[in-house]
TrEMBL record:
Protein name: RagB/SusD family nutrient uptake outer membrane protein
Pfam families according to UniProt: SusD-like_3, SusD_RagB
Residue intervals of the RagB/SusD domain: 354-470
Domain of life: Bacteria
GO CC annotations, alphabetized: cell outer membrane
Amino acid sequence: MKNLLKITFVTVLALSVTGCADDLLDNSGVSGTSQPTQFITAEQLSEGAKTNLEIPAAFVGGIYAQMIQTGTGGTNLSHDDFGQKGYDIYGDMLCGDMALSVSTYGWYRSDITEFQAPLDFARGRNRMVWRYYFRILRSANTVIQSLGGNDAIPDNPDSQYAMGQAKAMRAHSYFYLTQYFQKEYNASEEILPLYDTPVNTNVAKATAGEIYDLMESDLRDAISLLNGFNRTAKNEINQDIARMLLAYVLGAKGGNDTEVATLTQQVINSGSYTIMPMGDVATTGFNDVNDASWMWGIDITANNGLDLVSWWGQVDAFSYSYAWAGDYKSIDASLYDAIPADDARKAQFFNNPASGRHLQPLFKFFASNQIGGTSQTVTADYVYMRIEEAYLLNAEANARAGNEPAARTSLKTFLANRVPDVSYVDGLSGSQLQNEIYTQTRIELWGEGKSYLAMKRNKATTVRGANHLSFVGEAIPYNDERMQFEIPQLEIQNNPFISSQND
């Protein structure tokens, strides 16, 4: 019981380290480099870990808790401020695969679907994205520092596993920051402040090359440190998740296709996860972390306190939600039309021409058996990563590397669980093969926050279908100004080393 109380206490402190109120951060800017004295420090954590080896793991649990916590973007009332899945929606909407087909309450419309935030650094959504990921970074740096710092290898396995997870989470946050705040990889471009320790001072922007070097180093260390780690819950990062994160980082950087293919093949070969069967695609609801295809996700319970302000509260019509009440999130009509009639995923979306073809995902995501939900309390789970991603990223990397037979094999293995006949893949090569893999990635991972990442990797041009409320039919390339967020105004005001977007 004493250990349980100690773990619970330190987990709460983990949430507090970077969850302080706006007035406590005013002296340091949005990055959150200030450390108020009433919150735990790396030194205090290190001292505690000497007498209780479970404390570092509990503190890592606090990092994971921030991923689902409301208000981590620094707002008190915003109903789109609820952690990682909130920014997954941002990405899906920016790239156009998720259409806001009806807007009654206005969430996402002006700042995201009409691109006002990416074009105006004073808009609050820029600050939310920035603040959330730098809060995660701060927590990860605190754990790393408490365990000896960036170059340390802890003596005991539990501390090694905590270090590995913290480094993976630091890389995960920097990865999303690079995707959301840089148009495309340019090693010499200065893009973000680089914090690899929990310092109390602001720093200037580092180059993309330096940020990517840190991410790669962190994830390679994580893969090594997590060797032998048998996690107790899927919200924890294990070796497979670290390998997939490294594959995503290298894929975004470009020029590393062979290693991306190797990393994803290692995950596939682990045999720890299986592709969701065709018969389950439109019947299971993608709401249970115990699904054999889920690699990384979290078991949401009533104790988490989620309700309308959650991913389910924004996207799922079978929840007490905006998606039920009048802010419909739908698959882009053109992407829906690209799904063959005999593809099991076609049935995930409600196609009712009489109601304007809103194409909501009524049969992909559903948290209950009743439109509008049976409860305001969210207990349906969050998915962060599925094994299908490994097959699709493996096919993509192999196709780019020129290993088209391997690319076709991975694509066919995946598609055999979605369509009755995969033989057409044998006739694809070159750009046709690459385009098919990209299309299948968009269809399979719709609504899961991966379409934006795929758009940037594939240097794609997006064209919104007829069920969007704005910019219908306009071609928007991946590196358009409207596809990235701006360094927020408050960061520029409070960080003396950054005086403009281009510093």
